[in-house]
């Protein structure tokens, strides 16, 4: 019977001692678990902020591209230029602006003009013609030059002025 009592006390003592040791070991893990939990919260917050950043950036990019596309449609229309209607121009031949020594080339959708003794090409109206009413300008439709050729190459063959 003494053996059983000693045995019971030993088991009870172990039972009392074990939770304390287990608790001490568990406390260290508790800190690690808490740190991991905080780290997970930090990562989730960082991921949310990153998602917000990319969503905002994508929204700004879409807005920018929409604006650029609108500008492109406005500025770079295909077809006859704005002044063509006033001259009943059908976009099938080159046009020579006599007063400005400038050609309109419908094949390239731009203007060819003399600059510093050389021919230059511009997709937009040249700067010296910006304030000119091209609808009322003196023009000559050049039907002798094929549309696929550059009109400036034939400048010396004709009397333009």
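^ Assign residues to that structure.
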């Amino acid at each position: 019977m003494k053996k059983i009592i000693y045995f019971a006390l030993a088991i009870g003592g172990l039972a009392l001692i074990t939770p304390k040791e287990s608790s001490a070991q568990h406390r260290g893990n508790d800190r690690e678990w808490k740190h991991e939990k905080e780290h997970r919260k930090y990562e989730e917050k960082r991921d949310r902020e990153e998602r917000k950043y990319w969503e905002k950036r994508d929204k700004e990019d879409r807005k920018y591209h929409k604006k650029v596309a609108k500008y492109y449609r406005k500025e770079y229309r295909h077809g006859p230029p704005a002044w063509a209607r006033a001259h009943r121009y059908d976009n099938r031949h080159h046009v020579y602006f006599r007063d400005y020594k400038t050609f309109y080339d419908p094949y390239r959708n731009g203007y060819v003009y003399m600059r510093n003794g050389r021919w230059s090409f511009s997709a937009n109206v040249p700067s010296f013609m910006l304030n000119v009413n091209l609808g009322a300008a003196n023009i000559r439709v050049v039907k002798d030059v094929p549309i696929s050729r550059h009109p400036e190459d034939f400048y010396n063959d004709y009397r333009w002025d």
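The CA atoms of residues 114 and 120 lie 6 Å apart.
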